[in-house]
């Protein structure tokens, strides 16, 4: 068994999350491709609640996108299926709307995506970290030793702390403090939850600048977490403190959660500031979390990471086959999902003003219909809601 990589590939992809594995699956169809992942086991540790709307919902979320075929994943990747999304205001008033969604076993899902990349012909290197990139040269080190390889085109699908973005001189997604949510979550068992609904709880005492979620994992298990903005937190109170406060003291949630036992701890950052103005150079593209490709209103990044991963992988193969240059990536991804990324950041900024006041947040949630709530959390902004939010934002000063 030879673990040495070839010295040269057409395409090198850094990071085997949903973005990188999807990029590799599409690049490998028409170009020699290596997929490099620092984790020794794909998908471990999990850094996700696993909420993924079903295919029909994704088509409505991203109507201009050509969805990767890997959205038709096997049932073994699914922990449970939910039917509703429920928003709970700071007062406890709630509204819900239909969302047909799976809750993924994210480890299994990431492994499935990597298997698809390998089946398409990609060379997969796990337990291997990219330490430096200079031009077309990539330095890698890990359990199979240290090597230098070269690639015609490099894709940075290496998450929010992207080394590839830095090496390419592209703006990082961590630069804006309000554009980064710090997420922490517990998998818990022994909780009493509604298995058909995912819940999103708002209120600045419990979740400053974000929301807390309860995502069912089936029977009496769930993922309970929150994403908060540090700039809106009380001094000295950590995200872990807020999560404990939510689980133990929230008037509605604590009734469901207080007897639960924690089975795993998940933490990570969620880039909610949108994509930088430039996401490629002449030989490098960044995609997924590395490029801020998330729906900023809910922090969901699996669908957008897979869509931009596919576009990056196809653009890389087209480039090496002389059909385009890497520059085509910028207009390709923006024409497929640019509007959703930009609008969701605009809505998030409007909502940031409301989140500073629980009465204001409650008033907004009372005034917006469930249909419009669904649109907002998808990163859409109906005109009537835009006027309402802009008016309230003016009142907030
Ligand atoms: C707590 C939490 C809960 C979330 N819940 C949801 C949810 O329910 N639904 C949803 O849609 N989104 C959710 N998200 C967001 C979602 O997880 C991300 O948007 C998604 O994983 C982005 O995929 P990606 O492939 O771009 O990046 P990642 O999944 O972060 O993958 C990047 C990969 O690159 C690898 N890597 C990094 N640096 C290097 C290097 N130097 N060398 C080699 N490999 C490297 C990493 O190990 C990693 O495997 C959540 C995020 C957090 C933090």
Structure description:
- This protein is of the alpha/beta class and 397 residues long.
- The chain folds into 3 domains: 205 residues, FAD/NAD(P)-binding domain (3-Layer(bba) Sandwich); 119 residues, 2-Layer Sandwich (D-Amino Acid Oxidase, Chain A, domain 2), CATH 3.30.9; 40 residues, no CATH class.
- It has 11 helices and 15 strands.
- The strands form 2 sheets. The protein has an 8-stranded mixed beta sheet with strand order 3-5-4-11-12-13-10-14. Strands 1, 2, 6, 7, 8, 9 and 15 form a 7-stranded mixed beta sheet that branches.
- Strand 4 and strand 5 form a beta hairpin.
- The longest helix is centred in the last third of the chain and has 28 residues.
- The structure holds flavin-adenine dinucleotide.
What would you say about this model in short?
With 397 residues, the chain is α/β, with parallel strands linked by helices. It contains eleven helices and 15 strands. The protein starts with 7 loop residues before the first strand and ends with a helix.
Descriptors:
3 domains; seven-stranded mixed sheet; 397 residues; D-Amino Acid Oxidase, Chain A, domain 2; binds flavin-adenine dinucleotide; alpha/beta; eight-stranded mixed sheet; 11 helices; FAD/NAD(P)-binding domain; single chain
């Amino acid at each position: 068994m030879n673990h040495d990589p070839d010295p040269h590939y057409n395409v090198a992809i850094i990071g085997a999350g949903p973005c990188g594995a999807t990029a590799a699956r599409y690049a490998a169809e028409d170009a020699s491709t290596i997929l490099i992942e620092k984790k020794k086991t794909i998908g471990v540790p999990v850094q996700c609640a696993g909420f993924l709307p079903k295919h029909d919902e994704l088509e409505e979320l991203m109507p201009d996108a050509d969805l990767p075929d890997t959205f038709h994943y096997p049932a073994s990747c699914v922990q449970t299926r939910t039917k509703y999304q429920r928003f709970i205001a700071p007062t406890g008033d709630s509204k819900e709307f239909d969302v047909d969604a799976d809750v993924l076993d994210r480890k299994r899902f990431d492994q499935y995506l990597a298997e698809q990349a390998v089946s398409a012909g990609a060379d997969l290197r796990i337990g291997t970290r990219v330490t430096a990139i200079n031009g077309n040269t990539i330095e890698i080190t890990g359990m199979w030793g240290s090597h230098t390889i070269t690639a015609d085109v490099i894709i940075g699908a290496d998450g929010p702390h992207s080394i590839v973005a830095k090496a390419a001189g592209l703006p990082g997604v961590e630069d804006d403090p309000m554009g980064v949510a710090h997420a922490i979550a517990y998998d818990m068992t022994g909780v009493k939850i509604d298995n058909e609904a995912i819940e999103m709880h708002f209120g600045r005492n419990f979740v400053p600048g974000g929301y807390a979620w309860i995502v069912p994992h089936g029977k009496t298990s769930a993922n309970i977490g929150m994403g908060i903005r540090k700039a809106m937190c009380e001094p000295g109170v950590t995200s872990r403190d807020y999560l404990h406060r939510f689980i133990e003291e929230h008037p509605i949630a604590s009734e469901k959660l207080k007897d639960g036992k924690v089975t795993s701890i998940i933490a990570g950052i969620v880039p909610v500031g949108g994509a930088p103005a430039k996401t490629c150079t002449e030989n490098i593209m960044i995609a997924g979390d590395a490029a801020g490709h998330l729906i900023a209103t809910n922090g969901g990044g699996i669908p957008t990471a897979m869509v931009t991963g596919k576009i990056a992988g196809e653009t890389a193969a087209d480039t090496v086959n002389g059909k385009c240059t890497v520059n085509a990536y910028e207009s390709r991804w923006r024409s497929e999902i640019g509007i959703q990324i930009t609008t969701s950041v605009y809505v998030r900024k409007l909502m940031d003003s409301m989140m500073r006041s629980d009465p204001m947040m409650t008033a907004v949630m009372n005034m917006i219909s469930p249909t419009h709530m669904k649109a907002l959390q998808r990163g859409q902004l109906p005109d009537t809601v835009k006027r309402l939010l802009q008016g309230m934002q003016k009142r907030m000063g």
